[in-house]
Amino acid sequence: MVENTIHATQAIVTLDVPIQGIVWGSIITVNMWAKSIGTGVVFLAAYLLYRHKKESMPNLRWIMPVIAFIALNVFLLFTLIDLHQPYRMIHIFTHPHWTSSITVGAWLASLFLGLVTVLLLIGVADAFPTLGGKNCKLSALARNNSAVYEKIMPFLVFLAIPVTTYTAIIMAQSSARELWQAPTEVMQMLWAAFMAGSAALILVSGSWSKEARKDLAFVLTIAVFFSFAMYMSEYFFSFKSSEAEATLAFVHAGGAYNVEFWTGMTLGFIIPFFLGLSTIKSDNITLLRLAAILALVGLFLVKDVWLKIPQMLPLS
Amino acid sequence: MKLGFLVDLSLCMGCKGCEIACKVENEVPLSSWRLRVKYIDLGVFPETKRSFTPLRCNHCESAPCERICPVSALHYLENGIVNIDSSRCIGCAGCMMACPYGAIYMDPETNTADKCTYCAHRIESGMMPACVVVCPVEANIFGDIEDDNSHISRYIMEHKGAVQVRKPEKHTSPTHFYVGGGNQTLNPLAHQRLEGFSLFNDITHLEHVGDKHHSILDRFLAPFAGHAKLNNDNFTAMQENVETHSKEGGH
Fold first, then answer.
1. Which residue of B has its CA nearest to A91?
2. Which of A104, A134, B107, B203 has the fewest CB atoms lying closer than 10 Å?
3. Is residue A94 part of a domain?
4. Is any Cβ of chain A less than 8 angstroms from the Cβ of B206?
5. pLDDT confidence of A240, banded at 50, 70, 90?
6. What residue numbers bound the domain in which A60 lies?
7. Is residue A126 part of a domain?
8. What pLDDT, in 10s, does the model give residues A263-301?
9. A17 in any annotated domain
10. Shortest CB distance from A176 goes to which of B50, B99, B250?
11. How many domains does chain A have?
12. What is the mean pLDDT of the segment spanning B100-112?
């Protein structure tokens, strides 16, 4: 744990109760990581559909909502299992407290998942006409309303912005954790979504045109570069608060999570940057997939560290 | 009416009577504290002294815990107390992340957040909080800070300039004040907290949040299986982890 040391004060705690350790652990990391994928693929799909013809990305229309659906359900599942009273999750809908970003986020994410489910039904029904048999009413309903997909998409992209960034507002409301009290957290969430979204789509882009893959490689490269730059500036620049400085000084000094942080930075940001840069020209699918996998792994590690380290500081 | 608390640290002798009274009055489970008294040794031998600092919820006028609570389990009473409705709490621990004073804990028996309520149930019956009643030196002063003639208001006026709150930079506007304290005692970053270096135990961190025997699966099964009686080895079991803590970065 972070041990605070202002030696000049010559003050030492000689009797106290055990204080709380890490409250939000790896379950919340999975929550944030999965949400980045779920919203990121929506951003990237919208961008690709705007830039390229549908024919150059034959499976995008159904695979994007499938990935988003799975990722968002993982996100919601891990939100639920982190609650000490999971069955009371319903209270967020029956007794909402609107000043809480947890409440606002839960409502937005639920709406977002609902819209993704509609896209999933339409996309899959269109792509696999025989699915469910001829008498499947749901498939028929989805196919008959195929045009709804394109109508929903702009709203989904718009909604993905607050859904991906609201966690930063939760962190801002977690006012005891000084490290998170930075406006950069909002941008970090957005870059994480671009990273995770492009990485997830790269893994399913084998049959796509070179140009579409080039765009994905470009977005991944740009996202890891700016995200890395922001982490580094937060890591090395002096904060105004002594708590944030004490937290980072502990990691700087080789304390707990130092190795995890730099492993995450190397795997998820530095290596994918160079791999992504090289594949923009060469269209090497294998290298690009490697970059995507590393980016997803590294992003998880770094998010995990950033979540846990401010919780190591004694608050009282 | 706005209820407030003041602790005169120059009077406190660290008897922990308030800590025990709070435990008994509110049936606070093992490994949890609504109120604790922290001993801090200051100076270098032979110029040394020991300070005692009671720490509890600050009942902030701008409470971050109340703001982040997604279901209004944490709410204000008319007298300014930040109260908690454990039957509504979903156990998200958002309040524990928001409270800058580390005053909220996850009750290991109910698996809901809990904290000092200034003994709201006693106040409702016209009584003083248990910690106030039990204090042998009247270091705990409690009352209406909006009433100029109340004991606490007069005390604040008499000690004008020497009244402090914890972490004023957080802009939480605590209604819990200290007299006779200093940066060394009120700022957690201004004193060292060394692992394995305390008077009666060598435990400085809890390894678990809430009931350590209540796994993720148990959280889902509890309503059907019935909540087994809590095993009271919560506290003693923590000692097993002291070595691990040291390896993870403690001293």
1. B71
2. A134
3. yes
4. yes
5. low
6. 22-312
7. yes
8. 999 999 999 999 999 999 888 999 999 999 999 999 999
9. no
10. B99
11. 1
12. 94
pLDDT averaged over every residue in chain A: 92
> Measuring CA to CA, which residue among A80, A73, A71 is closest to residue A43?
A71
> Which residue in B71, B99, B192 is closest to A3 by CB distance?
B192
Sheet containing B3-8: order of strands: B140-144, B3-8, B176-179, B163-164
Q: Chain B 91-150, CB below 8 Å of chain A: which residues?
A: 91-94, 96-103, 105-106, 111-112
Instruction: Look at residue B63 in the predicted model and tell me its pLDDT.
Output: 97
Task: Give mean pLDDT, residues B166-180.
Answer: 95
Strands B176-179 and B3-8: parallel
| Distance of residue A39 Cα from the nearest chain B Cα, in angstroms | 22
Residue A310 to residue B230: CA distance in whole angstroms: 30
- Name the residue of chain B whose CA is nearest to A95's CA: B71
Number of H helices, E strands in chain A: 12, 1
* Structural domains of chain B, ranges and CATH numbers in brackets: 3-57+116-191 (3.30.70.20)
Find the CATH number of the domain harbouring A111: 1.20.1630.10
- Which chain A residues are within 8 Å of B219, Cβ to Cβ? 81, 83-86
pLDDT in tens, B8-23: 999 999 999 999 999 9
Looking at the complex, does the CB of residue A253 fall below 8 Å from at least one CB of chain B?
no
| A102/B68 Cβ within 8 A | yes
Nearest-by-Cβ selection for A21 from B170, B189, B207: B207
Least Cα distance to B138 among B26, B5, B3 occurs for B5
In the structure, what pLDDT confidence band is assigned to residue A21 with cuts at 50, 70 and 90? confident
Tell me, rounded to whole angstroms, the distance of Cα A301 from its chain centroid.
12
